[in-house]
Amino acid sequence: MKIYKKFWFQWVMNYSIGELMGIAAAAAIGRIMFMNLSNDNGDYTSLFPFTILLIAGAAEGFIIGYTQWKSISLLVTNFKPVAWILTTTIAVIVGWLSILPPSVVFIAFLSSFDLIGDYHSMLYTGLAGLAFGGIISTPQFFIIRKHYRHAETWIMANAIGWMLSFMVLYAALSVFTHTTSFIFNVLVIILSCIVSGAIQGIITGTFLHLVMVTKTDAGKMNETVLGKV
Predict the structure, then answer these.
(1) pLDDT value of residue 141
(2) DSSP labels for 37-58?
(3) Is the pTM of this model over 0.85?
């Protein structure tokens, strides 16, 4: 039990740090590319939003994939890093390209005409997070099911985690409209990233412990039960 409790706290901590690093890396890449490409000719500037999303998504996906693999490999033997990290990276890129742009445009468009308020914007943001988490965790499911029973709940846990994560980040970004302090805005982003990662870590870590069971542990439990018969 102590091993699992230690794993749970480490999982949450790693998720918090990973989320902060992932978003920081994505933001830094976006800022650098914007500065370098915004003054170029139209052929380049027309592609730079796509390029930013692609590279920023890859950076965040790699960090999240590595963070998850590093934690899960403590409990699951022969949990291969390449397949998990590569799958996660590609999935996050797909999520960045297919979910974020239309969601931002949709919410901004409706908000510009005062067709939706903060409540509905938060609701749509949560739905976007739900879809984003589903896109990431669905391909991961086909790997994790080899090691865990009830692996389908991994998709549910990530969908819920990313939904709440998106809502936290949206709430943090909404604060920017009420302040012009650069330091305060940076602190808000850092805190929201840590809280966002902690929420994901708590939800996915809890599912890993209370719902999902490693097939190794399941085999040991079956042996214990059969030994008592």
Answers:
(1) 96
(2) HTTS-HHHHTTHHHHHHHHHHH
(3) no
